Amino acid sequence: MLITVSRSGGFAGVGKVRKIDTSVRQDAAAWEDLARRVMPPVADGFHYRITVDGQELVLEEMGLTGDQRELIRAVLGEMA
To answer: Whole-angstrom Cα distance, residue 28 to residue 25?
Structure first.
């Protein structure tokens, strides 16, 4: 399993990306279990990418706030 985590933003705008390849680790089972626990199951759910003046937000349908749903409905012209 390949796990990638990236961070961006912050005061200094210092980003960081790190990849963990579990196939070469003795503690692979623990890493893979943790990775599976943080990924929410979304059966046939929609994914959204909202960009506002260059700032990007990636969302899963199950975790949308009311305001996010309202914006998606307004822009796409359909029920979200």
So the answer is: 5
SS (H, E, C) the chain: CEEEEEECCCCCCCCEEEEEEHHHCCCHHHHHHHHHHHCCCCCCCCEEEEEECCEEEEEEHHHCCHHHHHHHHHHHCCCC
Count of Cβ atoms closer than 10 Å to residue 72 Cβ: 19
Answer whether 30's CB lies under 8 Å from 20's CB.
Answer: no
Residues 20-40 pLDDT 10s? 999 999 999 999 999 999 887
Rounded CA-CA distance 47/77 in Å is: 16
Residues with Cβ within 8 Å of residue 20, at least 6 apart in sequence: 2, 3, 4, 31
pTM of the model: 0.59
